[in-house]
Sequence to fold (496 residues):
Amino acid sequence: MADVRRPPDRTRKRSESDDRGQLLLVGALALAVVFVALALLLNTAIYTGNLATRDSGVEATPAIEYNSAARHAGVDAIASVNRRNNTSANDLNRAFTATMGRWDDLASHHRAVVGDAADTDVAGITNGTRIQQDDASRNLTTDSGAPNWTVVSGVSGVRSMRFTLEASALTDDPTDLVADEVYHVTVTSGAGARTVFVYDTPSGPEIRVNDGGTETTCAAGSVTDGTFVVDVPNESVGGASCPALGPVDSTDGSASIDYRDAGAAVGTYTMVVDEPPSALSLSGVNTAGSGAPYWTYAVYSAELDVTYRTETLDYEARVGVVPE
Amino acid sequence: MSPDDRGVSITVNYVIVLAITAVLVSGLLVGAGGYVQDQRTIVVREELTVVAEQLAAGIDDADRLSRADARSRSVRVGVNLPARVAGESYRIAVTNLSTPADQPARHELTLRSSGSEVSVTLTISTLVGLDEGSVSGGWVVVRLDGGTLALSNGARSGSLSLAEPAVGGRHA
Fold:
């Protein structure tokens, strides 16, 4: 059989078979580099998969919730201090800032647990006046009994307008709302004149809202103990929805509120306007505790500075708080 | 076979083996190199897509916060994006698309890697406007100043801070 290998040649330094190995070695090394590159890419791909499933780290939700919670706290605080501390505007403001300060302390502790910094400060308070009548057996005339009167004028905002009226005292089944002396309240401002007539029909009390000539009638949902509630901010009459009431307290510019034929309605009412008592004439309304109707100091609205900070978020907002 | 041919046979054998080996190895190298390049492009594209989605999430958060009911606000949202994808730096460009008046504004986020020139485009829509511009990858801050959102780069510390925290002096 023929030899397949060249006999060893001692005169040469290296045999060709060694050179063959060199080529393979270089090739193997180059391939190894390629595989390492591939492994690195695989690593990047795995990292990408990890990144894709990772939380992005930004959390708008707690900040928005905190903002909303601060607003609710502000609304509750205004309602609370108006009920308890209405002897003077200063008392109200002090009580409101103290209440919000306490809420802020509790809330920031609560947020600190998850590592977020939150802060709420009172940036401003709009002092207002509440005008109300508590005597449910009295008609809605002035303190001296005049049926056609201006409750308040020269204000730019009114909120929380609610009437609790006795159904039996209202004008029965009128044919002409004005001629038949139906009790009505008119809110006049730059946005137009909106009038709410309240009367009784055989099928139950009704209101008619006249918004710049457009008339809408709403029947009271239910009459409890002979009374029903006309709730303007809630847009309801006796619990039944009445969307036509929506624009009544949406004023623009200087507004005035007038009662007409107020002898034709008996019950209680309350409203808050955005001017302090000193800026209003308030003729026809007594000071608190000296008869009905009367006025008290009230906080109309407030502004809060809300700050929320996390590792990846810095949020500051000025929030207006106006209870309904 | 004469004894003289033996050496020829060995040489031929050697050359053929060498040639086959060279062809095989270079074929493997070329093939594997191309494969690696393809994989690299795919990986970069995938990662840029993920990065674009993360940035979109940050912009959405800023958009939500900018719409949350308030009289005035300022918002900084930091998004911690990787500075490099598969070893390449990349750039993020925002372009606005024309939108009908009653629709939310639409924007295109285009991410382009510097080396392999891979480009990924993501269309997002926001209710608050988003300024056109471009930033490089890494720590990106979505700012609301005035009426519109804008992207910016910056150091991780300091780029978020709006101002010194107000001292709660009004607390009674």
Remarks:
- The longest strand of chain A covers residues 117-133.
- The first helix of chain A runs from residue 16 to 53.
- DSSP finds three helices and 15 strands in chain A.
